[in-house]
């Protein structure tokens, strides 16, 4: 008021029209009491309340004190500078022009003051001149300015922007203030025009805000988006044509999610998508963005099919889901920094950091750059700041088309407006922005250029101007005030009115609402197709350029690794728990199993500790369990981030390698700590690396198994339910809990490990450690080779050959009565066993010959051959008896040598390295059945540690449990190294399955195929 008063009091003072303008201005802004108060303030500062003598004196003095008034004006402007935004200051300047123009007295002194105000407000000379020309001139010819758009009914040759409107008297002029994206409107004719439902006074200048609509008496309305499009037409934006042609989408369950939707849009538009819950808003967004493929129809971007020609559209689409995309453990800066590193391969680290700082400054997040973002429940930054940072992740690479799912969900009204302002600014920069919005405020609703409204079942029931949508549905509902879209008093729009009409229920005879709708979704769609024509856009033929330049796969790997590493080490609780978990478990397990056999002694002796086999088994289980829990959430936690980064076309392989490297590194540290503590407590000497390699390999297997689970299931609860389902079979089939020969017959095996057990990493790890602990320790390594040969000879001497002779005796009895059925059965079975056994012995002992092997058939076998066979076994008994004596003598000689040299050292070596329980486990001395028949083969059932496997093929690596070595491709390989290699092979196969998501495809494809076979309802057809 002071500024108004000080300007109009200059020269001859305030004129009647000038005071009327001020009064009308106050009436529009304030209530009656406030109008009187501020009008009195204006009169006081304008000198209208002075006495006659004072007025005359003041009038004479006014010419002399105008400089003083200018100083006061300067002071007022400086105060305004500190309180108003630049947009508000420009509105003030326009109102000053309008005030002076009300009487038309643009004196030199008044213009000097307005110039001073413009300079203090930091308005450019070009924009000041534009405002002046806009206010003073009223003809199309004089308003032929670059920043003015005119609407008129006659064709005029002009360089300015114009819209033709038939039958319009006078002109509508709209001024653009480009620096703050502000628009002003005035009308010079006499028709009844309405701005946002209110009549337009041809003597006033109006602010033409977001969502505004000008209603003309004889022509179609002019929308804010129409005006904006004219002003933006000359700007150098990437041309876009986005055409959706009859897309439908059917879920894997068979239900229809979208039904024959078509529309077209171009660059520089903010498009809203609204609908009730279950109407298909998010589904539509997913199809439009390329995440899902439509069942029918196509989406064309500049003539290119989004789904079949996606390679040519790389990097032009951005997607911001409703859920958080931030890495909780990283700071605001780091979240944006690593995202930028993945987008710009050509930028140096300094350039990337500068770009990140610039973006944070633009979004008002620079002060929060060093704060951790935290989780949505444990917030370090506000919800609005989180949402802006989510938008920044896409904004930094400037995609041409952006899809946003419910950006205002969970935000305050102020934060919601800030976020939508940001999206609006993106559209003003030539981007095409699609936004799924739910329950928007009036201001937010009017920001959209166009609105798509869906009804339940995926029906498109409206597309067009948002404010017009309210009027459209009111007309269809035959409401009295159907020509009113917004409140005539305040200009607010109530979008909920649309859904109140669309979802209106039928009332029964008792006046109660029923579950039936008045108008069904198909009927609304029918109205839409009858009343609304799909707008056409010019199809652009050139593929839109992409600013995205992703780095090489190797560089992506390093960026992913560094990002993951930073996020983990910044979580102190995570680091401490994972570093302390294994040492604590190692201490508990080793302390509990450190058993002293002699009740009268406190001296721990490793040899007598009966818990070592259990310790080995539990160590394997600990490595498996910790490895699984360590990785089970890794990919699941990143799913939303991966969904967004899929639009960057980044390497999945690089991501998976980085995850694997981080987990392997952590597992390596964990298992080192476990082995150092546990082995030291239990006195397992000189086998630190042996134990570590097996436990580390098992943990790696568990890491990759956990990553597969993490990538497959969409719930943390499901993931942790699956873990015991995997672990328990691996515990049962590890070989530690049950003997493989004594399992259910459908899975058990007598001569080798069951196939199902060979699929368990725990079996390979447990066997490797037990075998190595027995034969590779510092004591047994001196005796093992001799013990092995002695055991072979002893087995043949004590069990194998006596069993053959027993069968020869049975044959002799059977030959006495060869025609009986029992005799034939015995002969047939025994001959097969003997033939197989003698064939093996001919190879093992070639120096002892047997000439009747070819006659070992039921038809040719006789008493003479039986006697010859008995004689052959006697020779073998003699051979193996000598062999046993020879090796037994060697062993005793070696033992005597060691005892005689230093008996104390020998006893200490045996006590510290040999363990009786491990020895019993691998020798099985108490096995009841020393030998069993399997087919036509006699299988040794004890001392498996001394028995080499018998392969059935060149690549047959399967063997009995606790074999000392394994056969593969013509070579025998030490069991420890072979088993470790098998665990790593299984891990590699799991990584391949992870890369191709084989587990997810296996688990989830079959149920959906069944669903497609179900009969469809009529509504779906």
Tally of alpha and pi helices: 33
Strand content is: 5-15%
Structural class: alpha+beta
Termini Cα gap: 68 Å
Relative helix content: 40-55%
Q: Strands of the largest sheet, in order across it?
A: 15-16-17-12-18-19
Major sheet: size, sense and barrel closure? 6 strands, mixed
What general form does the structure show? elongated
- What is the CA-atom radius of gyration, in angstroms? 44 Å
Beta strand count: 25
Q: Low-confidence stretches at least 5 residues in length (pLDDT < 50)? A: 51-65, 1015-1021
Quote the average pLDDT.
89
Architecture overview:
- With 1021 residues, the chain is α+β, with helices and mostly antiparallel strands.
- Among the domains are: 1-123, no CATH class; 154-235, no CATH class; 326-398, no CATH class; 553-744, no CATH class; 780-913, no CATH class.
- 51% of the residues lie in helices and 12% in strands.
- The strands form seven sheets. The protein has a six-stranded mixed sheet with strand order 15-16-17-12-18-19, with helices on both faces. Strands 2-1-3-4-7 form a five-stranded mixed sheet, with helices on both faces. A four-stranded antiparallel sheet has the order 6-5-8-9.
- Strand 8 and strand 9 (222-223) form a beta hairpin.
- Helix 13 packs parallel to helix 14 (413-428), helix 27 (761-775) crosses helix 31 (916-923) and helix 28 runs antiparallel to helix 29 (821-844).
- The protein is elongated, with a radius of gyration of 44 Å.
- It starts with a helix and ends in a 9-residue tail after the last helix.
- Mean pLDDT is 89; it is low at 51-65 and 1015-1021.
- It is found in: Membrane.
- It is a multi-pass membrane protein.
- Residues 242-482 form the ABC transporter domain.
- Keywords: ATP-binding, Membrane, Nucleotide-binding, Transmembrane, Transmembrane helix, Transport.
